[in-house]
Amino acid sequence: MLDRADPRRATSSAMSGRMDDRQALAAIVLWNSGHFDTFDIGKLLDVGEDAVCRTLHAARHLAGGAHAS
Protein backbone atom coordinates (compact mmCIF):
# COMPACT_ATOMS: atom_id res chain seq x y z
CA MET A 1 0.00 0.00 0.00
CA LEU A 2 1.20 3.50 -0.81
CA ASP A 3 2.29 5.45 2.26
CA ARG A 4 0.79 8.88 1.68
CA ALA A 5 3.11 10.34 4.32
CA ASP A 6 6.14 9.42 2.22
CA PRO A 7 7.41 12.79 0.86
CA ARG A 8 9.24 10.94 -1.94
CA ARG A 9 5.88 10.07 -3.44
CA ALA A 10 4.24 13.46 -3.10
CA THR A 11 3.12 14.65 -6.53
CA SER A 12 1.10 17.44 -8.03
CA SER A 13 -1.99 16.86 -10.11
CA ALA A 14 -0.59 19.23 -12.74
CA MET A 15 1.49 17.81 -15.57
CA SER A 16 5.16 18.57 -15.30
CA GLY A 17 5.84 19.59 -18.87
CA ARG A 18 7.98 18.21 -21.64
CA MET A 19 11.30 16.43 -21.90
CA ASP A 20 13.91 17.30 -24.50
CA ASP A 21 15.21 14.66 -26.93
CA ARG A 22 18.25 13.79 -24.81
CA GLN A 23 16.17 13.37 -21.67
CA ALA A 24 13.67 11.18 -23.52
CA LEU A 25 16.40 8.93 -24.89
CA ALA A 26 18.03 8.72 -21.45
CA ALA A 27 14.69 7.81 -19.87
CA ILE A 28 14.19 4.97 -22.36
CA VAL A 29 17.73 3.64 -21.86
CA LEU A 30 17.45 3.83 -18.07
CA TRP A 31 14.04 2.13 -18.08
CA ASN A 32 15.23 -0.65 -20.40
CA SER A 33 18.20 -1.31 -18.10
CA GLY A 34 15.72 -2.64 -15.55
CA HIS A 35 17.49 -0.89 -12.66
CA PHE A 36 15.31 2.22 -12.32
CA ASP A 37 11.64 2.98 -11.81
CA THR A 38 9.87 5.98 -13.30
CA PHE A 39 10.16 8.00 -10.09
CA ASP A 40 13.94 7.54 -9.91
CA ILE A 41 14.36 8.32 -13.62
CA GLY A 42 12.41 11.55 -13.17
CA LYS A 43 14.63 12.55 -10.26
CA LEU A 44 17.82 11.68 -12.19
CA LEU A 45 16.72 13.72 -15.22
CA ASP A 46 15.11 16.52 -13.18
CA VAL A 47 11.71 16.05 -14.81
CA GLY A 48 8.35 14.94 -13.48
CA GLU A 49 7.50 11.27 -13.23
CA ASP A 50 4.47 11.89 -15.45
CA ALA A 51 6.75 13.08 -18.27
CA VAL A 52 8.80 9.89 -17.94
CA CYS A 53 5.64 7.77 -18.06
CA ARG A 54 4.31 9.59 -21.13
CA THR A 55 7.67 9.17 -22.89
CA LEU A 56 7.87 5.45 -22.15
CA HIS A 57 4.26 4.98 -23.25
CA ALA A 58 4.95 6.78 -26.54
CA ALA A 59 8.10 4.71 -27.10
CA ARG A 60 6.15 1.47 -26.55
CA HIS A 61 3.44 2.67 -28.92
CA LEU A 62 5.97 3.44 -31.65
CA ALA A 63 7.89 0.19 -31.08
CA GLY A 64 4.61 -1.69 -31.48
CA GLY A 65 4.41 -0.64 -35.12
CA ALA A 66 2.29 2.49 -34.86
CA HIS A 67 3.58 5.52 -36.72
CA ALA A 68 3.04 9.13 -35.71
CA SER A 69 1.28 11.17 -38.34
Description of the molecule:
- Helix content is 52%, strand content 0%.
- It has 69 residues and is mostly helical.
- The N and C termini lie far apart (40 Å).
- The mean pLDDT is 82.
Kindly report the average pLDDT value: 82
Q: What portion of the residues fall into strands of 2 or more residues?
A: under 5%
Helix/strand order: HHH
- Most strands sheet: none
Can you count the helices? 3
Oligomer: single chain
Count of DSSP E strands? Answer: 0
Provide the structure class. Answer: mainly alpha
Tell me the radius of gyration.
13 Å
Unreliable sequence segments: none
- The amount of helix comes to 40-55%
- Tell me the distance between the termini: 40 Å
Give a brief rundown of this model.
The protein is mainly alpha-helical.
Summary keywords:
mainly alpha
Reconstruct the topology from this structure.
Elements: H1 21-33, H2 38-45, H3 49-63
Helix pairs in contact: 1-2, 1-3, 2-3
